[in-house]
Design goal:
The protein contains 13 helices and 14 strands. The strands form three sheets. Strands 7-6-8-9-10-13-14 form a seven-stranded mixed beta sheet, sandwiched between helices. Strands 2-1-3-4-5 form a five-stranded parallel beta sheet, with helices on both faces. It has a two-stranded antiparallel sheet with strand order 11-12. Helix 3 runs parallel beside helix 4, helix 5 runs parallel beside helix 6 and helix 12 crosses helix 13. The relative contact order is 0.13.
């Protein structure tokens, strides 16, 4: 009998211990962490700071509406400095320390390319609203973007130059970054296919004196000049050198400078008549209109880089809908982004993301007049 008694007592003890350590069957509570990668220092902070402003507005709107099933979304922000090394470190922290299942960002292509392998290893999905290098297309099943790649931008610019402006040769000044080189290569591929000739001159991002580069470009005697830069600050240095040298060539520029009010104002004379290609915005879209009004009310200025701003506004809402649909799980969210975002309505209009992770939208041709862009007729 004593043995039976001991067995009973032992069983009760084991049951008691298991009762203490057993995980409750209830669903998780507490905030849902969303990682953010953005350049918050250096020249590229010109993009990162407005993006973070937008994320703060959208996260508030989501949480004010109840979050996801009553759970609030919480931003975990890291500065990727628009470069590979810092982006790798920032992503490692988000994945391994903060344990996020999803990251929104980066904005810079080089930073995003560096972040993807870390996120993929940790089975964390990345949604980028701004990184546009063609090298990102189909890069990983854990990466998607709602901003289009630059293959479309290069193709549009090439078509305008060759078919509409009778340009047969272009000299390209391209900053040595993944984004800027990507635009230049996309332009070259399309322009050469049409029958034109392209000369690409790359330069380091830390170049301070642009006069030698501009002088060399002028001496080349090509029909037009193309500027492919990473940040407005770099572009402004080239525009200043062009003004100082009193050179006004037929000019084509990437989508960086048109979105920056300071560049468009300060170098209004140099940019007059220049051609560019941007992701179009629709001022009649009520969601985009509300986004612009919310930004102006909150920060006292117009939203800069509005073609990026519209996709940045949409990013967290897309992620919210994904979490609602499949849960807070990186693998499931990655699959959802690649298969289920079809005709999703946001500030950027109707958003569809293909199986390669790219959105099915493109760039439109524009011309700069009186310091503003107009759709090219």
């Amino acid at each position: 009998m004593k043995i039976i008694g001991y067995i009973v007592i032992l069983a009760l003890i084991v049951w008691g211990v298991m009762s203490v350590v057993k995980k409750p069957a209830t669903t998780e509570t507490g905030p849902i962490k969303i990682g953010i990668l953005a350049p918050l220092t250096g020249d590229a902070a010109a993009y990162g700071e407005p993006a973070l402003n937008i994320y703060k507005l959208t996260i508030k709107e989501i949480n004010d509406a109840g979050g996801v099933d009553g759970r609030m979304l919480e931003l975990v922000v890291e500065d990727d400095k628009c470069t590979g090394g810092p982006a790798t470190s920032a992503t490692q922290k988000l994945v391994n320390v903060d344990k996020v299942q999803v990251i929104v960002g980066g904005i810079c292509s080089g930073a995003t390319l560096a972040a993807i392998p870390v996120a993929e290893t940790g089975k964390v999905v990345i949604l980028s609203p701004g990184a546009s290098s063609p090298d990102l297309t189909g890069k990983s099943s854990f990466f998607a973007r709602n901003y289009p790649g630059d293959s479309a931008q290069g193709k549009v610019l090439a078509d305008v130059a060759y078919n509409k402006q009778n340009v047969k040769s272009i000299y390209v000044l391209a900053e040595q970054t993944d984004y800027a080189k990507g635009v230049a290569k996309a332009l070259e591929s399309s322009f050469v296919a049409l029958g034109g000739k392209v000369t690409i001159e790359e330069y380091p991002s830390n170049t301070t004196d642009m006069r030698p580069l501009v002088t060399k470009a002028k001496a080349a005697g090509t029909d037009a000049l193309m500027l492919s830069v990473q940040t407005p600050a770099t572009g402004q240095k080239i525009l200043k050198a062009m003004r100082d040298l009193k050179w006004k060539p037929k000019l084509f520029i990437g989508d960086v400078m048109p979105g920056d009010p300071e560049t468009m104002s300060t170098y209004k004379d140099v940019l007059e008549g220049a051609f560019t290609a941007e992701v179009g915005t629709d001022l009649e879209n009520p969601i985009f209109k509300r986004a612009l009004e919310a930004y102006k009310t909150a920060y006292g200025v117009d939203m800069p880089f509005q073609s990026y701003g519209q996709t940045e506004w949409d990013a967290l809402f897309i992620i919210r809908d994904g979490i609602k649909a499949v849960g807070y799980d990186g693998t499931k969210l990655a699959d959802w982004l690649h298969t289920s975002v079809k005709g999703w309505q946001g500030a950027a209009g109707s958003v569809t993301i293909g199986a390669d992770g790219d959105p099915l939208v493109g760039h439109r041709a524009e011309i700069i007049k009186n310091g503003k862009t107009e759709v090219l007729k």
